[in-house]
Each structure stands twice: as C-alpha cells, then as structure tokens.
Specification:
Elements (H helix, E strand, L loop, with lengths): L5 H12 L4 H8 L3 H17 L7 H8 L6 H6 L7 H9 L4 H11 L6 H11 L17 E8 L3 E2 L6 E2 L2 E7 L5 E6 L4 H15 L5 E4 L6 E3 L6 E2 L1 H10 L2 E4 L9 H14 L8 H16 L11 H9 L14 E6 L5 E4 L2 E4 L8 E6 L3 E6 L5 E6 L7 E2 L11 H13 L1 H14 L4 H9 L6 H14 L4 H34 L11 H29 L1
Amino acid sequence: MNVLKPHLQTTIWTLLQANASQREIERVTGISRHTIRAYQQRFAAEQSNCPGVATGSEAVASQIAPPRPPASLSAATSLCEPHREFIDAQLRLGRNAMAIYQDLVDHHGFAGQYNSVKRFVAKLRHKVPEQFDRLSFLPGEEMQVDYGEGAPTRVAGSERYRKPRLFVATLRYSRASFRCVVWKSSQRVWAELHERAFRHFGGCPQYVVLDNLKEGVLTPDLYEPELNKVYAATLGHYGVVADPARVRDPNRKGTVEHAIGHTQSTALKGRRFESLEAQNEFLAHWERNWAAKRIHGTERRQVQAMFEEERAHLKALPLLGMQYFDEVERTVCDDSCVRVQHCSYAARPAAIGSKVLVRIYVQRLEIRDIRTGKLLRTHAKAERPGTVVLPQDERVFNPSRETRLILRQASEIGEHAARLCQLLFAIEGRVGQRKLWGIVGLVRRYPAHCVNAACAQALEQGIYSYKRVQGLTESLFAEALAAIEAQASASSTTTVAAAGLTQQHELIREAEEYGDLFAQAAATAVCTMVATASTQRSRS
C-alpha cells in the first residue's frame, strides 16, 4: 500500500466519515481508489481494536493515521440529537437545512444555531447514486455512431490549425471501433462514413443507434422518425435499420460516447497533425495496436478477441457498394420534360405541371413520384448541356399559349423570323420552344432587321438552329457597323479636303504675340500666389 502524507490521510478519513464514496474521494483528491480502499480497511481495523493506550506498532500507526473520535460521541454532543427523527423525516421530504432550522425554532423550542443544524443535516443526508440498468447485447446486434472533435490539424495551404469532426462507430458487443476525421459533414458524408465503417468491420449489424443530428434524422420522433433520404437509402442497401435515440438522452448510446472520450483523452490529447490523412493513419494505428488489444474494464476480456467472436455474426456485405445521389425537386414543363443541369428529360407518366423528385447519380438519372417515391422513369445522364432526352413519339406538337406568344413576337420581327419559328415548332414540338425564345430574344441586343435577315439566310441554308441564327445575326451586325464606320470616315475626309485650312486672316495674330500673352499670364499668376502666401503668414 502507498504511504500517504498525514494531511492526505486526514482528508481521506474525513471524507469517509462524511459517507463519501470511493469514486467521489478519487475525483476530489486524485488518489487511486485502490489506495483509498486500503486505507478504509486500515481505519476500520484500527477502530475495531480501539486501544486505550497505543504502544509499539500501534503508536506508529497512530502517528500515520490521526485518531478519530467515535461517531456516537460527536452525535451526542450535537444539540440536534434529540430531534433526529424529525430532522430525518424532513430530509426524506426533500426539505433543506434552513427550513428544518426554522421549524425547530418555531415548533420544538430549539436553542441552537443554524450552523449546528446544517452540520447535523450534512451527516444524516445520504447521497443516493443514480442507477442505470446495464444492458447486454448479442454479437452483431447493435452499432452506435456519433460525432466528436478531433485533434488540431493544419488547414491545407495555411498556417492555421483547426479541429476536424471525429466520427466514431462502435460495435456494442465487442466495443471494437472505427474512427475517422473529416473537415465537413453533410448528408452524403454521414452516409459514406457508415459505409466505411461497415467495410472496416467486414459486415453489418442489425441496427444502428445514432443521435438526432440533421445529417441522419430530419424530423425526430419516438415512433416514426423521418430519416435523410441518402442515409435511409444507404442503410437500406446494406440491410441495416436505424434506431435514433430519444432527444436529449445520450445514455442510450453511452458506449460510443465513452469511445469518443477515450479517443480524445488517450490517443489525441496534446497532439497536432499536418493533414487529415496523417490523423486518420494515426487513429488506425492506435486502434490496431492499442485500443483493440486492451482489456475492457467491464467485460474483463480483450476487445480484439470479442470482435473475432462477433465478426461471424455480422451480416454479409453486398457485392456492390452504395451508389450515392443528389435529390432535387422539379416541375414537369408543358413539353412533358423536366430540366436538370441545363438538359431536358422525359417525365411521363408524370402529368404536366406536377412536382417530381429527381435523383441524380453519376451515370444515370431517376424520376420518382414525390409522394410515394415510386420510380417513374430512368435516363442515362446527358454529357452535353442543352441535350433533349425525349422520344419522338412523346413530343407534344399542339401549340400552347406560350407557343402562340412566341410566334406573335416572331411575326413582329419579320416574315422570315416567323416562318423559321413555325418550322422549328413543327419539327421539335413544345420541347423546341427554348430555341424559339432564344431567336425572339435576339432583338434585345440587335436590330430586328438583322435578326430577320439572319433567319432568311438560315432558311436558305436549311439549318434550323438558334446557334446558327445567332451567329448570322452577329456577322450581319458587325458588317453593318463596319460599313457605317467606313462611310463616316470617308465623309469626314472629303469634308476636310474640300474645305482646306486657312493660314492667313485678319483675326489670326502672329505666334510671338500669343507667346507674350502666355508669359504675362504666368507671371501674374506667380505674383498672386506669393501675395496670398505672405498674407496668410502675417495673419498666423
């Protein structure tokens, strides 16, 4: 047993007399519970012997541990002892020392001071520790996940350090953990971290316990929580069920909470890293060489051995990984298409004007019903902006009010513009109205006769395209500007040559007279400046 200094022994003895637990004494003094337990046994043995005179080894022990008066003696000397039953009953009702003191004075004729009641109440009051049920889980049943803070890491391209987010996933049976740090979190990052955890463990648990953060749970509810779509699709792909904890109930996922604290206090405390990759490599090394090989305090077994036992009970991983997507809401236009990333995609059987959900994958695109999530249409993702993915038999050719408006504006531009717009609509239907709007909108930047002439040339060439009309309009406008500038330059040259320059006239003086005039004006200005400066100095 460690031999403590006399004042520390006195502190332990005093706290034990006050019915403090060993854990509380350890928290207050910083002394190990094993040492506190040994001194408690030693004090109990000495009190049971209770010699009248200490001799020999007992005298030495009395020098180390201070003599303690019997508890009965201290209670007997208190003025509150005759009222013990009343005070104890009031404490059970939850009343404080001041209220008990006031009742003792008013109804029991108590003559002591408030401090006497306060000390007596402190001895009688017993702190009942908060109790928790210890839950047990089957292998491969539950995994708990949560975010914490990682160690300070240098931000790329700067000298600044910042703490990233620390993701920890812990299997409840074996306490094996997956740890990873990221700069930012989002719905997709949250789902990707779960997938990496499944791959790390080599299998999937039956369900996942998580917090009610927005990356995973959109609307917390005890019975039917609304999950983020990407996260729900990821768990569905791996056959895992989400079990969000109650709001403000972190004890439900106490295993991962402890794992985060263990990681921060043991692995990352006092460390700095130059990059996220370096910190993730260190966390993997620490988990493999230290955390997995530790003996768990509750189970008294090695974490790695428990994980090897649990590995066989995890569900097998699917052959293909999760295909992540972005989900957006779109309205079906009057041409029966939806606009996604500057491209048009057929949306039938969705009705014109209705809302649909569009899931954008890397190589494909899905159109789903906004209420039921039912798949309506699948398309390969277009590579070039402006592409129209719409079969010819699904095109709508009956003119709408928007079509009539465009054709009326085209007829105001000119005959050729109206004819070209009519041909484009007859070829492409309503889906080609965007091209018609582009042709009509050229009059905002160029004269109408240039746009009309460009449409005439496009009709002659047989190229019915907005880009072609735009290029022809720009060329015609540039040619017109060049012709105007050339005509204006020729006209000014002719005027100057015809008029000539007059060198002799009665109103034109000699050059020397103009020079004398300029010199006289400069001298007058200098004199004025000097006079002004002298006046200011005299005033100051």
